Amino acid sequence: MANLKERKEKVSRKLENIDNVIMVMSGKGGVGKTTVAVNLAVALALEGKKVGILDVDLHGPDVVRMLGGREAKVSAVGGEILPPEVHGIKVISISQFLDNDNDAVIWRGPLKTGAIMQFIGDVAWGKLDYLIIDAPPGTGDEPLTVFQNVEKIKGALIVTSPSIVSQDDVERAINFVIKMDKQVIGIVENMSYFICPNCKTKHFIFGEGGGSALAEKYNLELLAQIPLDSTVRENMDAGKPVAYFGTPEVTSSYVNLAKKVIEKVEAVS
Ligand SMILES: Nc1ncnc2c1ncn2[C@@H]1O[C@H](COP(=O)(O)OP(=O)(O)OP(=O)(O)O)[C@@H](O)[C@H]1O
Ligand SMILES: [Mg+2]
């Protein structure tokens, strides 16, 4: 088995062909990290970018299902893993290596690190403009491995809900990124408001102002406020990313997010 130094070198070599690595994270579970990661990837591809998405949520790998790639299998080429392309996006997740979608894998910390390093270093990603990484909730081994081994990472997008009550965990994630000496690219507020299909007014079901309060506190930009819409869940469950298949409101919020990310990330490169 390759030692850590060799693995790290392999990862670095692979990253030479990947311009921008962005992690999507949050201290909180269930706020829509995976939904945002998948749809940002699709929206970036719609902007003409070459995109890959890597799922490092080893306990709850949802990326492939949400992207709509359950039928797409990985293959091998020249000793490397060839990622399947779904909607033009190269995708790698532990779920592609399990016989059954519901298989539980027991991971100890070092195994997680090894798996994540392989998912970058041993995968034939080719040339990419963006590699989006979907992290599990919190600030554990998975985001730590990425930050410690992907030196050129552009930073993290922090996903939050609009509820001020839930901000403590999200702030922990922001502070984690700062402590790792990486950049918080911006805040994405998900489930921001619900537009009543009858009266067309906005209802702030999970409260209002959480994303902007966070952005202000940490001097960050609130890059998007994505509406709460039952068609988001329905489409994502069916593997139909809403950046493409969603309502005009939802689709445009992702297109705008992608444009802002491109603006922010490519301005500093
Ligand atoms: N804007 C939205 N409107 C309606 N439903 C949404 C929205 N965003 C996400 N969802 C739904 O909320 C659920 C949780 O989303 P998701 O799995 O993306 O969250 P997560 O933060 O990645 O969760 P975990 O912490 O488990 O990884 C999913 O069923 C998803 O379809
Ligand atoms: Mg998730």
TrEMBL record:
<dbReference type="InterPro" id="IPR000808">
    <property type="entry name" value="Mrp-like_CS"/>
</dbReference>
<keyword id="KW-0408">Iron</keyword>
<keyword id="KW-0547">Nucleotide-binding</keyword>
<comment type="subunit">
    <text>Homodimer.</text>
</comment>
<dbReference type="GO" id="GO:0051539">
    <property type="term" value="F:4 iron, 4 sulfur cluster binding"/>
</dbReference>
<protein>
    <recommendedName>
        <fullName>Iron-sulfur cluster carrier protein</fullName>
    </recommendedName>
</protein>
<keyword id="KW-0378">Hydrolase</keyword>
<keyword id="KW-0067">ATP-binding</keyword>
<dbReference type="InterPro" id="IPR027417">
    <property type="entry name" value="P-loop_NTPase"/>
</dbReference>
<dbReference type="GO" id="GO:0046872">
    <property type="term" value="F:metal ion binding"/>
</dbReference>
<comment type="function">
    <text>Binds and transfers iron-sulfur (Fe-S) clusters to target apoproteins. Can hydrolyze ATP.</text>
</comment>
<dbReference type="GO" id="GO:0005524">
    <property type="term" value="F:ATP binding"/>
</dbReference>
<feature type="binding site">
    <location>
        <begin position="27"/>
        <end position="34"/>
    </location>
    <ligand>
        <name>ATP</name>
    </ligand>
</feature>
<dbReference type="GO" id="GO:0140663">
    <property type="term" value="F:ATP-dependent FeS chaperone activity"/>
</dbReference>
<dbReference type="InterPro" id="IPR019591">
    <property type="entry name" value="Mrp/NBP35_ATP-bd"/>
</dbReference>
<dbReference type="GO" id="GO:0016887">
    <property type="term" value="F:ATP hydrolysis activity"/>
</dbReference>
<dbReference type="InterPro" id="IPR044304">
    <property type="entry name" value="NUBPL-like"/>
</dbReference>
<dbReference type="GO" id="GO:0016226">
    <property type="term" value="P:iron-sulfur cluster assembly"/>
</dbReference>
<dbReference type="Pfam" id="PF10609">
    <property type="entry name" value="ParA"/>
</dbReference>
<comment type="similarity">
    <text>Belongs to the Mrp/NBP35 ATP-binding proteins family.</text>
</comment>
<keyword id="KW-0479">Metal-binding</keyword>
<dbReference type="InterPro" id="IPR033756">
    <property type="entry name" value="YlxH/NBP35"/>
</dbReference>
<keyword id="KW-0411">Iron-sulfur</keyword>
